[in-house]
Every structure is written in C-alpha cells, then in structure tokens.
Amino acid sequence: MATGKVFLIGAGPGDLELLTLKAVKALSAADVILIDDLVNQEILQFAKPGAPVIRVGKRGGGRSTPQIFISKQMISLASEGKCVARVKGGDPLIFARTHEELKVLSEYGIEVSIVNGITAGLAAPATLGIPLTNRDYAHSITFVTGRSRESAQPNWRALVESGSTLVIYMGMRTLHQIVERLIKAGMPPTMPAAVVEQATLAEERSLITSLSELPKAVLQSGMASPAVIIVGKVIEDAAALKETATYLSGSGRLP
65-100 pLDDT, tens per residue? Predict the structure, then answer.
C-alpha cells in the first residue's frame, strides 16, 4: 500500500474569510482531519463529505491532547495510505510545535506539505489599525511567547534596546511578570501597549493603554486567552485611527 500524505495547515486567526485558498484545497482533499480546539470549526464546511474529524485539543495553559498521541495518529493514518489534514490555528510555523511533527513524520518517510496561515500576531494589530513597523522608529518586529520556561526566558534587555515592536503570544497568564521584566530591562512605563482578545472573531475585544497600566486594564476588562499583546511606539496613533468612520477593522466582513 502506498504511503499517504500529511498537510500541516494553518487555519488563520479565526475569521473564515482569512482562510487561504490552498488551505481550502487541502481540506477538501483530506481523507481525515485532525483539528485543534482554537480553530474556527466553520472551516469543516470545506472538508470532503464524510471525512472523519478527530479533535485534538491544544490550548495554552489548559488541558491538551498529548503531542505524542497526535503524532501517532498522523503516522498511523498516513501509513494506511490516507491523506491527512492536521489543522492548527494561525500559522503552523509559529509557536505550534510543528518542528516535532515534521521530525517524526520524516523519520517514517511520510510526505508532508506545509500550508501557511495568517498568524494572530499579524491579524490582531490589524484590527486596531496598528502598523507593526514604522520607518521613523520601528524597523523590526519580534514575536515572543509568554510561556517560556524560567531557564529559557527571552533576553528582555536586548528586546528593549532593539526598539522592535513586540508581539507576545500566550502571555495573558504571565502578564504581570512580562510587564515587570520589560520595565526592569529599561522600557519606559509609558510605552503604549495593547491587547486583542479573540482577534477577527465576532467576540473580539481590545484595549489600548500604557505598559505599566496594562495588567490593571486587562484585569478590569475581564479579558483572557486567546489574546495577543502588542507593545511599541507604533500603537500611538492607533486609538485615533480606530475612532474614525473610515477605518474598517480586521474583523469586518466583506459584502
């Protein structure tokens, strides 16, 4: 029996209209689908009729399906000659453990194709009209995870000194520590900061404040994961832009 194939698909930030055409084609070709919890389940309308769906919950800080189970499922199904769609939120190459899946599938000689998606770190700023770069004061962007082990913390001082716009994933549970570390590393407490919860979905909420006031503002708002934290001077004009009648947020559906 010929070995099957695995598509590692990025489903984007949630808005169905941000799903790529290539992702739709891969879903429609799949014999079986392994889908994460945070993926908008509406994308299953593009699946092949009758294709089994295996839900493999993956939520940061919460109960998750063990990675070894997911890998074994992909190996077993592909070894039966099936085309497998492994669907993840955002982009499969950003904070998604894709390197582990690529490694194990390669060891078994299984063909893999990566289908990129729009990551929340790009979609969330768009909902507030925040350009992540500015030729006057922000020449780079850094994606950071808020769930690093204590022994593997980012070099916060280097990040502050770089002047890079910071886009922080999975940082809501450690927000106080992140803010403390940034200020201790030399970032001004008045640096603009923003949070976008459930970016691009109908449930989306957001706020803009200063870095030092961010934990208090988030607590008062009741905002929680999944959310993206943005820190940098690029946020300064976003509040005014958000109020203009001409600005359509990233969650706005096309006619």
Answer: 899 999 999 999 999 999 999 999 999 999 999 999
pLDDT digits (tens, 9 = 90+) for 5-54: 999 999 999 999 999 999 999 999 999 999 999 899 999 999 999 999 99
- Is residue 187 annotated as part of the catalytic site, yes or no? no
- Angle, CA of 209, 166 and 56, to the nearest 5°: 100
Beta strand residue intervals within 67-191, DSSP E: 83-88, 111-115, 141-145, 165-169
For the chain, the straight-line distance linking the first and the last C-alpha, in angstroms and rounded, comes to 47
Q: Is residue 34 a contact partner of residue 56, using CB atoms and an 8 Å limit?
A: yes
36 is catalytic: yes
**58 is a catalytic site residue:** yes
- Kindly name the residue from 5, 58, 82, 88 that is annotated as catalytic: 58
All domains of the chain in start order, with CATH? 5-115 (3.40.1010.10), 120-244 (3.30.950.10)
Check: CB of residue 194 under 8 Å from CB of residue 238. Answer: yes
Find, among 43, 72, 68, 41, the residue nearest to 55 by Cα.
Answer: 41
pLDDT at 57: 78
pTM across the whole model: 0.92
